[in-house]
Amino acid sequence: MNRKKLIVVGGGTAGWMAALMLQKAVGDSWTIELIESSKRGIIGVGEGSTPALKSFFEDLEIPEDEWMQACSATYKSGITFDRWSEKSGFTSYFHPFYSHFDRDHAKALIHNSHLRRSGKDVHAHPDVFSYNHYLAKNRLSPVVPHHFPFEVQYGYHFDAGLLAQYLKKVALIRGVHHRDALITEVDLSTSGDIAAVIDEKGERHEGEWFIDCSGFAALLIGDTLKTPFTSYADTLWNDSAVTLAMPPDAEPPCETVSTALKNGWAWRIPLQSRVGYGYVYSSRYCTREEAEEELRAHAGADASVDARHLSMNIGRREEHWVKNCVAVGLSQGFIEPLEATSLALTQQTITRFIHAFREGNTGEEFREIFNTSVNKSYDDVRDYISVHFLTNSRTDSQYWVDSREKPGPASKALSAVFSCWFDNGDLPGLLKHLKIDGAYSNFSWHYILCGMGVFPAAETLTSPSPKDLSGIDFEQIRDFFARCTLNHQSHIEALKFSGLKRLL
Ligand SMILES: Cc1cc2nc3c(=O)[nH]c(=O)nc-3n(C[C@H](O)[C@H](O)[C@H](O)COP(=O)(O)OP(=O)(O)OC[C@H]3O[C@@H](n4cnc5c(N)ncnc54)[C@H](O)[C@@H]3O)c2cc1C
């Protein structure tokens, strides 16, 4: 008997993630087929993740040591933001992934942030309160032993090309069907559903459902179904990137470093096999040659190192699920990679679709719920990312001055967050009320606003009264962290995997 078919178009990271998750969820009753074209290739960038990727591998029961070794991966405790602010004492801060300890210490940070927002001269830089910051600065792996009673979240850095290849191998072992074919035509039924995709040789590939993972090409959701694109270009100006690969660190750190440059920012991502650099910038403010030159100087790369230039389409589809087509990955949208959120949004989209699909919730009403929730996730991430630019205090270029002084319209939610912050209101309460603490938690909002030094000017601050102080003992926090870290290996030790090849 012919089984019903779910066709994934595109074999980048998004396509293989979708295929694997679908195979696990419904592969016993549906055929999952992935069609990609080796003539098109994959984008092959995107080397940082959030902790969501850990749950992706865990859910698929793929051992961490195996995939990390195959993909030249390292651990990631968070991101250092360097030189985004020129305010004394705030020229660098760390945005950590959550750890159990931060829950307790964040209360102290929030307390001090209230005092500082009201003009009292107290310490409100976030780094000292964060466990993952302590781990990263001491080059300790964030992995904790099984008996450790506290959660320490972490993400990864990985080689994007190797990750797609690895996922493909696992997917084929697990029963996903694969075709290498260039799709040149799409056949719609009278109802407007996709009936088949047709390749350059004229072969029809029919299916009941189609997952568009064709990257920026957006072959099905855009080209075929003409779903409008909501651009974020009015608030997020960066539309271009240039990348370089440099030799690996002898001891890779477990953090991404994001350094503000003249017309954007540069990532530094340590892999086992190399260090990846990328400059994300606005083509309105500099040429690709200027960007490349600046990145080369920043990374210490001479002319022998090849540079790769990319354009980025920043925004999202108005709908991600239309008829029998669901867009996943770059085809559905992209927010510039400052907080490495793309794969997490991809994973979230597939999870939401699978949930609805398995329940048989595929009617109009459910599509609407799905599209509204995916749009909200994108918009919430957009808002958080834009705070980095809005709160910058750099004076070295028009790009940074304009980012702060001539921003596009802020969303209602973001305007409310800023009002609350400047009025010294209850930010955690507001975030909950607005339901925007899902994408970024209360902690993340405090880390960014405190870390960028969004406080009254230093010269206006007055001494706090003894009753204001919470009795925070920074020595005690440091001592506590130091004792906890006895449970962690050095990052480099943790990367010496057993070398077991269980799946491949
Ligand atoms: C500069 C930059 C930095 C980034 N950094 C990060 C990061 O740090 N973290 C993160 O999570 N994400 C990041 N991303 C996003 C990340 O790269 C993507 O989310 C991820 O690679 C998934 O891409 P994709 O699979 O959607 O598309 P692609 O990798 O582009 O794959 C598209 C697939 O579609 C196929 N295809 C296209 N047209 C056809 C056709 N006609 N017929 C058949 N097949 C076709 C291609 O063959 C390919 O297999 C970054 C992106 C950019 C641009």
Automatic annotation (TrEMBL):
7-chloro-L-tryptophan binds at K76. Pfam families: Trp_halogenase (PF04820). Coiled coil: none annotated. One of its GO terms (molecular function) is nucleotide binding. FAD binds at G11, G12, T13, A14, L330. The keyword Nucleotide-binding applies. L-tryptophan binds at E339. The active site is at K76. Gene3D superfamilies: FAD/NAD(P)-binding domain (3.50.50.60). Keywords: FAD, Flavoprotein, Nucleotide-binding. InterPro entries: FAD/NAD-bd_sf (IPR036188), Flavin-dep_Halogenase_NPB (IPR050816), Flavin_halogenase (IPR006905), Trp_halogen (IPR033856). This is Tryptophan halogenase.
